[in-house]
Amino acid sequence: MKKKRGRTINIKINFSNRWLYFLITLGILAIVGVGVWAVSYSPSGAGHPYTEISTCAENQILKMNNGEWTCDTDSTQMSCRVSSRSTSTVGNYAACASDEFLTGGGGRCANGYLLYSYPAYIGSTTPDQWIVGCNSGATQNSAYAICCKY
């Protein structure tokens, strides 16, 4: 008995050279357009400046009171401060003192964008520094660490 083979479907599409060159040109323009947009894209509002993070005067602590943040001078509570460091290099860090613990942080890049921002374990078993990095076009970057103690 003879075995039947499956049917094959052949599709033939004929384009003139003019249409083929047009489609190739259109594809190249689309790729270049996406590339230009990706290189020139600059997210606004990445990071927070020091003035947005620290709202209290010296020797005051920031605490939640009836659903709103207020500044207080009560020293029996946990006290927090913002440690900041600015540099003209691509990578930067802000560190807490040895008697403090890290609760958060962030960074900001001048004339560039933030590539990474994370806590780090340097000299401690718990995070004690906040690390940030900017793209190579950044002229200055700032790292902020929110440090607290009891």
Explain this structure.
The protein is built from 2 helices and 8 strands, in the order H-H-E-E-E-E-E-E-E-E. By secondary structure, the protein is of the alpha+beta class. It has 2 domains: 15-44; 50-149, Proprotein convertase subtilisin/kexin type 9 (Jelly Rolls, Sandwich), CATH 2.60.120. The strands form 3 sheets. Strands 3-8-5 form a 3-stranded antiparallel β-sheet, with no helix packed on it. The longest helix has 24 residues, at 17-40. The protein is elongated. The N and C termini lie far apart (90 Å).
Topology:
Blueprint: H1 17-40, H2 50-53, E1 61-65, E2 68-72, E3 79-87, E4 91-95, E5 101-110, E6 114-120, E7 129-134, E8 140-149
Antiparallel strand pairs: 1-2, 3-8, 4-7, 5-8, 6-7
Q: What's the quick description here?
A:
The chain has 150 residues and is an alpha+beta fold.
Look at the structure and give the mean pLDDT.
79
Tally of individual helices: 2
Strand arrangement across the biggest beta sheet: 3-8-5
> What CATH first level of the largest domain would be assigned?
Mainly Beta
Q: CATH topology of the largest domain, anyone?
A: Jelly Rolls
Shape: elongated
Beta content comes to 35-45%
As a percent range, the share of helical residues equals 10-25%
Order of helices and strands: HHEEEEEEEE
**Number of discrete domains:** 2
CATH superfamily of the largest domain: Proprotein convertase subtilisin/kexin type 9
Can you count the beta strands? 8
| Terminal CA distance | 90 Å
